[in-house]
Every structure is written in structure tokens, then in C-alpha cells.
Amino acid sequence: xxxxxxxxxxxxxxxxxxxxxxxxxxxxxxxxxxxxxxxxxxxxxxxxxxxxxxxxxxxxxxxxxxxxxxxxxxxxxxxxxxxxxxxxxxxxxxxxxxxxxxxxxxxxxxxxxxxxxxxxxxxxxxxxxxxxxxxxxxxxxxxxxxxxxxxxxxxxxxxxxxxxxxxxxxxxxxxxxxxxxxxxxxxxxxxxxxxxxxxxxxxxxxxxxxxxxxxxxxxxxxxxxxxxxxxxxxxxxxxxxxxxxxxxxxxxxxxxxxxxxxxxxxxxxxxxxxxxxxxxxxxxxxxxxxxxxxxxxxxxx
Length: 301
Fold this sequence. Notes:
- With 301 residues, the chain is α+β, with helices and mostly antiparallel strands.
- The protein has two domains: 5-139, Roll (PH-domain like); 155-300.
- Helices cover 47% and strands 22% of the residues.
- It contains five helices and eleven strands, in the order E-E-E-E-E-E-E-E-E-E-E-H-H-H-H-H.
- It has helices at residues 140-175, 178-197, 207-240, 244-267, 273-300, and strands at residues 5-9, 12-17, 49-55, 60-64, 68-72, 80-85, 88-93, 100-105, 109-116, 121-127, 132-137.
- Strands 2-1-8-7-6-3 form a six-stranded mixed beta sheet, covered by helices on one side. A five-stranded antiparallel beta sheet has the order 5-4-11-10-9, with helices on one face.
- A hairpin with a 4-residue loop joins strand 9 (109-116) and strand 10 (121-127).
- Helix 3 packs antiparallel against helix 4 (244-267).
- It starts with a strand and ends with a helix.
């Protein structure tokens, strides 16, 4: 097997990708090499190692509801290394034909846990796509250090991702792309939600973070309402022109936006849920009126 690095992402299995060498990183494995190639070769040049775990027999295990359980074991005289960097977890299983490398960015993490058995402990990582990765070790202190790092790094990366999406939303405003703004704000709110819930740590939800999240939610409600009203206006124009089908299509789009805005306003502080509900109800009445008019016209024809 040729040397490669696979990266896990939501909705997809691991796939091959290239990663640059990081000669400036410290040695990762001990004096006895556990992998065919130095683990630092699978890391980016600006990537920094924060914690490492090793085992010599078990390798890693992946559990998925659809694909079942898969264990990737090292070849004889090799082992496995779990490298936790500032941005992701890389699992490297030593094999003579080419190391098996799996990379999981922290923004894909849904949960982190440990399991203790009589002689070993296991790092258990669940991803947003529903897969569970397990890495078993004997070094209890090393596992504690790894978990401590993850509890800090995962929210940090998610908050950074939320701010990237927020920047994209602002760029969409400048471009006049309403749907791109909504998509970016939805991603922003989701990243903030996950940053404050994936790790049970009240210190993550600081006042500043809550203010950022609330501002993003307020903008998202506003964006959905703006799109709803635009769609409603086009629908009204089509209805006046006698094009009931086009009117209903736009009214349905408007209703979807009103429903999402109402959902957000009910769940979070920004937005007037009652006012949004009233506006939505009036549109539903308009839809019914257009449907009746279209039916009458069809009957007369």
C-alpha cells in the first residue's frame, strides 16, 4: 500500500489526500518506530502536536451504524499512533505496505469520551456523521492529557469556524446574495451551538461568545424574514397577473422562511415570534385564496 493520508468528513468515508511534511515538529514516536514513515510527514508545516497516544497491537476501531465495525490493526513490528494537533486528530497505523492514516478535524467532533477496562483505557471519539473511532492505550496519564487538550481545542476550532461563516455572511451581503447569506448564517449559528454544547464546560459560553451567537441569530431571523417578504411580493405580483402556479411557488418559499424565522424567534431571544406567526398566518390565508381562485378558473375553463 502506498503512503497516503485519509481525511474523515461528514457524510463520507475516509479518502486520500496529500499533506505536507512538518520537519519543525518534535519527535512524535519513541525510540522504536511504530509506523513505516515518521508521523510528522503526515502533518502540515504549521501544525503543532499537543498530545500523543500509542499502542502496539490494537490499532484503531471504527464503528458505524451502516458499515458495522472495522478494525485497522498494525502489521508485525509496527504499532499505532494517535496524534492530537492544534486542529485535528490523526490516527496512524503502521503497515509495511504503507501506513493507514485517518484524519478527523476537530470541527467534525460530536463527542469525546473514555472507557476504562481492567488493563487499558480507550479514547472514544464520535463524529457528526455518526461514526465512532476508538483508540486503546495503557498510558492512563497520557489519555487524561489528550482528553484535556480535546476539551479545549474542539470548542476553540468550532468558534473559529463560526467566525469564518460569519465573515462569509457579511461578504454575501456585499454581493447582494440573500440565499448565500442565509446559508452562511445558518452555518454560523450551528457552529456556535456545537461549540457551546459538544463539550460540557460552562466556561466556553462566555458573555462575548453569547453576544456573538445572539447577533448571528438576530441576523439570521432578519435574513429569513427579508427573503420571506421578497418571495411574498413576487407571489403577489404573479397572483395579480393570474399566474396562480408561480404565485403559490413563491408563497411556499415565503412560508418556509417564515417558519424558520419563527422557530428561531421562539427558541432564542432575538425576534418577535408572535408577530412572525401573525405574518405567516396571513400568508397562509392568501395561499388558500389563490388556490380557490385557481380551482374556480379551472372549473370555468
